[in-house]
Amino acid sequence: MKITFFTARYSLTGVPLAQIRLAKLFLSKGYNVDFILGYVPKDLTVPKLDGINVINFNHSRVLTMFGMIIKYLKNTKPDIIISAEDHLNTVVLTSARIAKSKAKISVSFRISATRVYRGKFLSKSWFMQKALGLVYHRADVLACVSKDMAKEYNAMYNTEKFTSIYNVIVDLESKSRKKESIDEPWLINKTSPVIISAGTLTKRKGFHILIMAMKEVIKTVDIKLIILGEGYQREILENMIKDENMTSCIKLVGHKSNPLKYYYHSDIYVLSSYSEGLPNVLVEAMMCGCTPVSTDCPTGPREVLQEEKYGYLVPMHDPKAMAEGIKKALQNPISPEHLAEGIKAFTEDEVFAQYEKVLGL
Predict the structure, then answer these.
(1) Residue 82 to residue 145: CA distance in whole angstroms
(2) What is the mean pLDDT of residues 269-289?
(3) Most CB atoms within 10 A, among 81, 100, 183, 260?
C-alpha cells in the first residue's frame, strides 16, 4: 500500500522530524513510503532515509506547490496521504480535489488555532482560515497534536471532526541517541545541578523570563543553565546575561544536532514558552529523565504533564513563579521511571494504533 507524507520545509526539529519518525514507523509496518518536502534550505542536508523515497519539490512557498502536488497525485495515486501544517494542509486537500484523488487523507495541525488564525479581516491568516473551511471536509482525519488544540479547531469551525493524535516522540533511535557521548564541560564534570532548555531564540519562547528566573534561583542555589538553539534574539539574550552578571552560570550553546544527549545529562528541563501546539521537547526531556518545569501556556504542557502528575506548572510572564518551580523540582525531582510512565502515549505502538483506528487500516 502506498503512503505519501507531505512536509512544507525541512528542518532538524519540529514538524519535519515528527513526520520523518511517522514515515519510518509506517515503513516498518510494510508500507511503500514517499516523503515529499516542499523545500530544503541550502545549509541543510536531508539524512538518508533507507527504504523511503524522498522527493524535494524545491518550492519555498507553499502556494506555489499546487501544480506539482496535483501532478504527483495524478501520476502516483497514493492510497494514503499524511500532511502536516495548516497552510500546506489546505493546499494538499485542494489539490486532492482537483486531481480527483481517491486517497484517504490525514491532515495534522501543529500550532494553536488562535495563533495561526488570529489575523484581522481580509488579512492572509483570515483568508487561510476561510480556505481551510472550504476544503477540510475532504480529509478523512483532522488530527491535532493535542486535545486542547482539537477543541480550539472544533470551536473555530463549529464542528466535532477535529481529533487529537500525538506525535511519535519515543522510539528506539531516540532512546539510543540520548546516550551518545557529550563534550559540554558543565555536563561532563558536574559540580552543580544543570537546567536545560531548548528552542528557537524568539520572544515567544520566553527565554528572557527564564534568565530572570535564574537570577532569583542563584541567590540561594548553585546551579547552571544551558540553552540550546539559535534565533533573532540571541544577541539580546547574550547582552541580558552579561548585564545581569550571569555569564558564569548561563550559557547559550547554539543549535545542536542531537539535543537528547544534553537532556540526558541534565537535571531539570524548563519550558518557558508563551504558546505551543504540543511541545515535543518536553516529552523528549521526560524520556531522558529530566524533571520538567513548564509554563502553563495554551495547549500542550498541562496535557503532557497531566496537570502536575509528571512535572511542575508555573504561570507565564512570571520569573519569580518560575524560580519557585525550579526550586520545587530540585527539592522533589521526579524519577525516570515515573516519567517513563507519563510518555507512553507518545510511543510508536500507541501512535500507530491511533492511525490504524482513524484510517481503518
Answers:
(1) 14
(2) 94
(3) 81
Give the chain's end-to-end CA distance (angstroms, integer).
10
Paired with 37 in beta bridges are 7, 56
CATH of the domain at 129: 3.40.50.2000
Mean pLDDT of the chain: 95
Q: What is the CA angle 151-205-265, rounded to 5?
A: 105
Q: By residue range, what is the domain housing residue 221?
A: 172-342
Q: How many helices (H) and strands (E) does the chain have?
A: 16, 13
**Does 155 lie in the same domain as 201?**
no
| 126 has a pLDDT exceeding 90 | no
% of residues, the chain, pLDDT over 70: 100
Report how many domains make up the chain.
2
How many other C-beta atoms lie within 10 A of the C-beta of residue 97? 14
Quick one: 87 and 187 in the same domain? no
Pair (219, 277) in one structural domain: yes
Q: Are 266 and 194 in contact (CB under 8 A)?
A: yes
Digit-coded pLDDT (tens) for 43-54: 889 989 999 999
Model pLDDT, residue 14: 80
